[in-house]
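TICKET #2291
ISSUE: user wants both folds in one file
ATTACHMENT 1:
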Amino acid sequence: MQEVVFSLLGLGSAYCSPCPPLSFELLLFLFQSNILIYLTICSVIGAFSVSSVKGLGIAIKGFFAGQPVLQHPLTWILVITLVASITTQINYLNKSLDIFNTSLVFPIYYVLFTTIVITTSIILFKEWVTMTVVDIIGTVCGFLTIILGVFLLHAFKDMDVSLGNLPQMLVSNLKKRKSRK
């Protein structure tokens, strides 16, 4: 449990401060029609939920090892933070889905959420310090592959491409290129 305490001390009062919710509402008031504001709020709050779950996982591991984690106030703070962050995250995600198209919300949210959670993990738990260079390169390449895959799925969602019509599409594209020359 001490490792969680030391990790969370780096955040200062961000977990307990009323400033983030107030700043979120101010941003929404100023930029009501911007999808990135809604989804950034969801992603930042989602990073709190992921960090809380990670801390609770360490607490559960300590509980089964016989440590008195239930008496530690941080365990209960993490539970409260988890419930509050999930509730807030779902609230803002529903607001964004009410205003914007679902086909825009989910790809952007997925990429933002993943980016912010990885960044939070780097800062809060300093996981990348123990990774080798090969592991870091593999993680970054995997992350970039996910982002590229989400982009490609979203960019070409309206195209009717299947294995059966792929040769026909290639032939028609070649004919179009030859006719342009």
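ATTACHMENT 2:
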Amino acid sequence: MASISFIIGIIGNIISFFVFTSPIKTFWEVVKNKSTEDYEVFPYIITLLGTSLWTFYGCLKPGGLLVVTVNGIGATFQFIYVTLFLIYAPKNKKVRAAKLVALLNVGFLGVVIAVTLLALHAKLRLTFVGLICVGMTTIVYGSPLSAMKTVIKTKSVEFMPFLLSFSLFLNAGIWLIYAAVIRDYYMTVPSVLGVLLGIIQLILYAMYKKKPMSTKSTNEMQEKVSDNAIKEDLEMQVCNNNGDDCQCNRKENGQYAIKDSEKQFL
């Protein structure tokens, strides 16, 4: 019969899989449009580093198979996302992203692995890598803070989807239970932080879910309506001043528009 920790770990692997695959839709649009537009690659680079370190931690930890599988899958997905960004990003963003990848995912990760295997004894290896993993995961879980700040500022949850927030909360919760069962303190600390941030996000969602549009969006719409109204007023004034010429121009413009539309069907 499978142990409780193994069952919880399998559930955690399944939930984490769906979390890791959530950006697929975003990067499908990137491939389709052949452009990264305004998307930022830094969160994916940091997540790639974090999952890579946790995979290494799982390899060092006795009985760490489920830690290796979940983070190995996560690292694979993040590697694909970062690669797609490097392919389709503008040149300036591509160069900056490549430097970050070289610094963090190659340089820093390589140094950690080298120091762990070559300079530390067996008992210190797990402690050293575990502390680094705690720090990296804390940064990853802290990334939603900017989204929460935006929600509070705009009083709208349009930039913080409920499904993603709930998935992150659920993911942190299940791994917190797993860490408590196997008594792994390095996994416990970031999981507690993830649960707390998840609860805050869900509270913010409950507070602002009835406000579908941000203040910025509302102002933009009002400005657009105002601009259209001014444009119509100017057109009316031109028509009043020019009289028949305006009607003539409208007819000619209408004929040109018809001709242009006919050309589209030829």
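RESOLUTION: both attachments delivered.
EXTRA DETAIL ON ATTACHMENT 2: Residues 213-218, 228-241, 243-266 have pLDDT under 50 and may be disordered.
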